């Protein structure tokens, strides 16, 4: 059974929780090896967040064109590429995502980042499902973009940290 602050995993290894509040302390199996592997992939992505940001948006919105409605300036994936603010926006999204991932093992810091994210995006009518959709593309994107550097430990770590982040979003 799920109790506040306890974890259950789905078939993809994503952590799911029930009835959490932003102040609940949540533990899960996000191992030290996974954290180290995630940090290595963060360093690789930070090497060119501009390129990775644009590539992630193209990858994600090609897989999930229904999400384009959340971006009024982006009429289509092809049109998005020519919007003058697209490169800076995509880079900012990836930078913030990495900042959140870097603090995810600290529930207090994670909740603070998530509260700030939810406040800054309140006018955009985003739901946890929108963030889950992005995360559903993020792991395969990283696998493709980083190739062999995206090790099994990194994949497991990104799946687990994604569960922490999505559940923090759902509970705030």
TrEMBL record:
Residues 29-172 form the Globin domain. The keyword Amino-acid biosynthesis does not apply. The keyword Heme applies. InterPro entries: Globin, Globin-like_OT, Globin-like_sf, Globin/Proto, Mb-like_M. SUPFAM superfamilies: Globin-like. Gene3D superfamilies: Globins. Pfam families: Globin. CDD domains: Mb-like. GO terms for molecular function: heme binding; metal ion binding; oxygen binding; oxygen carrier activity. Keywords: Heme, Iron, Metal-binding, Oxygen transport, Transport. Belongs to the globin family. This is Hemoglobin. It comes from Sabaco elongatus. The lineage of its organism: Eukaryota, Metazoa, Spiralia, Lophotrochozoa, Annelida.
